[in-house]
């Protein structure tokens, strides 16, 4: 496989989101049909996405988990039809889904459980040489927004990611193939998300590329004044992405690829 993840995804790189699900919070159902997911993936690549993250299990707050056969039924036809023509990441916590996806050309495994979900996933990643994203989450999707609690959110997320990085390396996954993600919205209040964004440099200081998913997240809608928002607008997503870039983020997981590529290209053109 290719070289270190920081060479494959220079700062800033954009990862397009293709949820092959009926119920994701932000693009609820638009890519549930194979043909729609494939068309979205191709369009995102044309718009400048470095990779497209294909997922068959929604992890939005409150979501129930999806059985293996259903998850495979959602993502395998999409990967088959893309046929390696678009660089793909697989958004899954399941070893069997990752294995099939890697066989079909997936380059990166995006595991929101950070190798805590399926005990066999680490070996699949290690033996295939795929890239890996380790994400922080407090609790589990079904209940994670009930009462997230931290003494020091940035310090706790950093130490969690440091521990999961050591675990992954111990399982035989080279450090140079791993990126880290603070998991915005995964068991965090609005205030905790913004504190984490302010202190993202502390996550970057762990020495691995930082991936962020802020796109359309509910905290953005809530900051804009709607206390019941379940999503946030594009304008707010772009502001959050640029703020994250300023603090060292490298890879941006987004729904609106063209706009993020443009905003981040401008941010990156500012000499520093
Ligand atoms: C994230 C994710 C994120 C990573 C989702 C959505 C909600 N994976 N999967 N980071 N969010 N690595 O589709 O935006 O923030 S699900």
Q: Which key features would you list for this structure?
A:
alpha/beta, 11 helices, 13% strand, binds ligand 7PJ
- Give the strand tally: 8
Which whole number gives the mean pLDDT? 96
Order of H and E elements = HEHEHEHEHEHEHHEHHEH
Give the low-confidence spans.
none
Strand content: 5-15%
Largest sheet entry: 8 strands, parallel
Distance between the termini: 33 Å
Radius of gyration: 17 Å
Overall, the morphology is: globular
Ligand identities? ligand 7PJ
Query: How many helical elements?
Result: 11
> Structural class from helices and strands?
alpha/beta
Task: Name the helicity range.
Answer: 40-55%
Largest sheet: spatial strand order? 6-5-4-3-2-1-8-7
Quaternary state reads: single chain
Could you please describe the fold and organization of this structure?
With 272 residues, this protein is α/β, with parallel strands linked by helices. The protein is built from 11 helices and 8 strands. It has helices at 5-8, 34-46, 68-82, 95-103, 121-128, 153-170, 190-198, 200-204, 218-223, 234-246, 257-269, and strands at residues 13-19, 51-55, 88-91, 108-111, 131-135, 178-181, 211-212, 251-254. It has an 8-stranded parallel beta sheet. Helix 2 links the parallel strand 1 (13-19) and strand 2. Helix 2 (34-46) crosses helix 3 (68-82), helix 3 (68-82) runs parallel beside helix 4 (95-103) and helix 10 (234-246) packs parallel to helix 11. The chain is globular. The two termini are 33 Å apart. The model has no long low-confidence stretch (mean pLDDT 96).
């Amino acid at each position: 496989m290719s070289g270190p993840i920081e060479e494959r995804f220079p700062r800033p790189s954009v990862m397009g989101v293709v949820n092959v699900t009926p119920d994701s919070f932000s693009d609820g159902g638009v890519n549930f049909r194979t043909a729609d997911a494939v068309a979205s993936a191709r369009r995102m690549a044309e718009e400048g996405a470095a990779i497209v993250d294909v997922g068959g299990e929604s992890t939005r707050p409150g979501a129930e988990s999806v059985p293996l056969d259903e998850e495979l039924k959602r993502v395998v036809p999409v990967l088959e039809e893309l046929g390696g023509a678009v660089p793909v990441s697989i958004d899954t916590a399941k070893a069997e889904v990752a294995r099939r996806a890697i066989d079909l050309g997936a380059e990166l495994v995006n595991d929101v459980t950070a190798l805590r979900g399926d005990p066999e996933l680490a070996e699949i990643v290690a033996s295939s040489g795929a890239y890996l994203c380790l994400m922080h989450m407090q609790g589990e999707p079904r209940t994670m927004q009930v009462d997230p609690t931290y003494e020091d959110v940035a310090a706790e997320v950093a130490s969690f990611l440091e521990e999961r990085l050591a675990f992954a390396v111990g399982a035989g996954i080279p450090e140079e193939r791993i990126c880290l993600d603070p998991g915005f919205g995964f068991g965090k209040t609005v205030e905790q998300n913004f504190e984490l964004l302010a202190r993202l440099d502390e996550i970057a200081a762990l020495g691995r590329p930082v991936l962020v998913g802020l796109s359309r997240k509910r905290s953005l809608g809530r900051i804009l004044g709607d206390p019941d928002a379940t999503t946030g607008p594009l304008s707010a997503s772009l502001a959050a992405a640029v703020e994250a870039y300023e603090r060292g983020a490298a890879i941006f997981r987004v729904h609106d690829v063209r706009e993020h590529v443009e905003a981040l290209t401008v941010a990156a053109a500012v000499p520093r």
